[in-house]
Request: fold
Amino acid sequence: MLQMKTHYPDATRVEPSHRRTLAIIVDNEPGVLARIAGLFSGRGYNIESLTVTETEHEAHISRITIVTTGTDSIIQQIKSQLERLVPVHRVVDLTLTGEAVERELCLVKVVGKGDHRVEAMRLASAFGARTLDATLTSFVYELTGTTDEVERFIKLMTAVGLVEVSRTGVAAMARGAEGM
Amino acid sequence: MSEMMTGAEMVIRALQDQGVDHIFGYPGGAVLPIYDALFHQEKVRHVLVRHEQGAVHAAEGYARSSGKPGVVLVTSGPGATNAITGLADAMMDSIPLVCITGQVPTHLIGTDAFQECDTVGITRHCTKHNYLVKSIEDLPRVMHEAFYVAQNGRPGPVVVDLPKDIQFKTGSYVRPLSNQHKTYRPTVKGDIEHIRAAIELMANAKRPVFYTGGGVVNSGPHAATLLRELVRLTGFPITSTLMGLGAYPASDKQWLGMLGMHGTYEANLAMHECDVMINIGARFDDRITGRLDAFSPFSKRIHVDIDPSSINKTVKVDIPIVGDCAHVLEDMVRLWRQGAHQAEKVALKDWWGKIEGWRARNCLGFRNSTETIKPQYAIQRLYELTKDRETYITTEVGQHQMWAAQYFRFEEPNRWMTSGGHGTMGYGLPAAVGAQLAHPNALVIDIAGEASIQMMLQEMSTALQYNLPIKVFILNNEYMGMVRQWQELLHGGRYSQSYSESLPDFVKLAEAYGGVGIRCDNPGDLDAKILEMINVNRPVIFDCLVDKTENCFPMIPSGKAHNEMLLNDYLGETGADIGSVIDEKGKMLV
Ligand SMILES: Cc1ncc(C[n+]2csc(CCOP(=O)(O)OP(=O)(O)O)c2C)c(N)n1
Ligand SMILES: [Mg+2]
Reply:
């Protein structure tokens, strides 16, 4: 439960908060990411995950995917505040347009011998992870999946010698025939 | 037709093409090429301020009094950082500005070069948009786009940071056919279905009130004309925020006075008891709403705003209308007329009856004195003696600002310039400089406090240099009065650091600058001395020695609702102690 923004120290209204995935289409100009990240920190909003790359090279357009949490009114504010930024074209709440497809990729390095090593291989194949690198004492696995799957994979790998994790954050897209 | 020229020349040419006649600035190493380009032309007049913050406030005063964008030119590093307070002020009060900052040459960016600072980084949060121009090809577009962004949608300051090597580079300048941004297109026309629903709600209202703000002023004089028409057609009462004063004439009988923390009894109670609130161009600021969970508990709310993020930000509304005030007001007037709508006559009569009862409380009444000048009286006299002239008022920040808002009566928009959102002491004097440049023949008065005036005092020198006959009218109470008032309310009257110690002799100070100094400490002399001030055609500092203990009422104390207002006779009536009015929770608020 998060409280509504108020001028007063006590919550005047308590609303349930939800996890939301926003797709933000922006001009890929210098500083655009700083503008967006700064907006979130300056106004006290959460960023759980942020992914960005230029998606249309000729038009210099980037797509930013942000996973955040907030009450409905905070999410509405986040959207309006983002849309107020001059280089932002559009903000779509993918969580609202129906079940969006969400994926993230993680790289996991595990180091170990004997039982741990065997168990790590078994887990990797159970999750369908790919082996990108192997030595006599280590593996680097790649797993693409939902945030939950990635979390579970990492948690299990911790028990068998996980030493390093790198994650991309969420990329997301609405289901169906319609484009953004 | 394209023409070859240097980056510095492009800056000046773009200003000329935008019809800019005055810019406010201060030179330095990183803008010397632009100053050189200025030297070779006469269309754009440069006003040399004495501090970059003053340049920005002057540009704000110019913009707000003329409806045109203000333009600022400052150097890199300290020039840019000195401008920050002004930019933040313009951001909060939605003032259209274009601020050109010099930057170290592109190859030195990031090396901690002399007078380098990350201007776009620092100003990102206090501008509407900013640019670092890294190639001469981008410069013409960026210059014109900056004007578009500053003025369209919700207005605000835009920074163009220009490295010195780009100022020297030669490129081709062509004035873009349109200076629009390639994607930024704010909505100006309101959704007609929402406007229809709003009119329906208004026609059935029993206790309606208009609550208007700076958005009406920003939208232009036409918006104020339409507002007057709609208010008269409906017969509804109207109140406004500090920023909106003048959009509706204070002399009209439907006018309730300003609302909010130091608003009138009738305006705040009308807001508390209304059943339909029509917010036009205001943003439910905390100075207006007071305690949010007790704000206007019985109303359905209509909110017209050009900025969608203002809608439902802190106060939920029933009918949001995103659009420019003038456009929406035009549709509202048309639909009200077309539907031959009539207000609920009987209910409205009862409502006005109630309001008249509140009015009878005469909340701005004060006990005058023949011994000392009451600050309220000083403003009343200032108003009476200047009302028949074309008068522009700016203010500093504090009690004097609130008394000016309460006792000076504004009949026209763009006549009142004050720092509302940011509350910047030091705003008034440079803003007066800007307003006077925009209106050379008008009477421009900065209503000041003795503490605030010392923050941008150096701009007296600017006023002298350009023969700007501005008047600085200081309500000298020898205290940071507003701080003292809060210390009485919150901190047991312990006046920690709020006494204005070692004040200068303001009369001599005025004379030292080459202006005229006038002092008045006696109510009997006040009129004559005010007239003396008005009649000198030179800059004046008027040191008006007022009652040192007077507090500013009515007041909604922090953490309280509109119907828990303190009136100036409140303490006398109840015998209550002023220090016990605000509770522990309220003390945490600002
Ligand atoms: C730059 C800045 N610093 C501090 C404040 C806090 N502040 C608000 S009002 C005030 C006192 C102003 O005193 P004065 O100018 O004498 O006005 P008065 O209240 O006495 O009329 C202060 C310090 C402010 N608003 N701006
Ligand atoms: Mg004072």
